[in-house]
Amino acid sequence: MFFYIRWMKQFLLVFIGGGLGSSLRYLMGFYLNSHKTGIPFGTFTANILGSLIIGIVLGYSYKNNLLSNNTILFIATGFCGGFTTFSSFAYENHLFLKNGDFMSFATYTLASFVIGFAAVFFGMWMVK
Predict the structure, then answer these.
(1) What one-character-per-residue DSSP string does 50-119 give?
(2) Torsion of the alpha carbons at 69, 71, 75 and 76, rounded to the nearest 10
(3) 105 Rama class: left (phi>0) / alpha (psi -120 to 50) / beta
(4) How many domains does the chain have?
């Protein structure tokens, strides 16, 4: 019974964190995605910020061992999991390719990977 209660609490933490992250990502896309150029600045920004946040949270946790597993589940798995999105990233790249916009496809893809990885490492470095 104790295992079930603990699991349900962790499930709810991920659920609530994911809902908050997804809602914030929606708002960022609504306000930042360019309807003129079609460039998804909102998704790009969410992915980079989410990478930075997860780097900070996990780096801080590894360094100080002060964050509980529940806090990590809420922020890293829930919030960052809902806030960042590979499915939107893939769909937006599909649209670039479908429209023959190979330059935007290449720029968006490379920038997302390079800056996203750099943000994780920078976040972990910041808390050292």
Answers:
(1) HHHHHHHHHHHHHHH--S-HHHHIIIIIIIIHHHS-HHHHHHHHHHHHHTT-HHHHHHHHHHHHHHHHHH
(2) -10
(3) alpha
(4) 1
- Condensed to tens digits (0 to 9), the pLDDT of residues 22-51 reads 999 999 999 999 888 888 999 999 999 999
Range of the domain at 116: 2-126
Can you give the pTM of this predicted structure? 0.78
Q: Tokens 């100080």: give the residue.
A: 64
CA distance 123 to 121: 5
Which amino acid belongs to residue 108?
Y
Burial of 74 (0-12, 13-18, 19+ CB in 10 A): buried
Measure the CA–CA gap between 52 and 68, rounded to whole angstroms. Answer: 19
* 105: amino acid identity, one letter: F
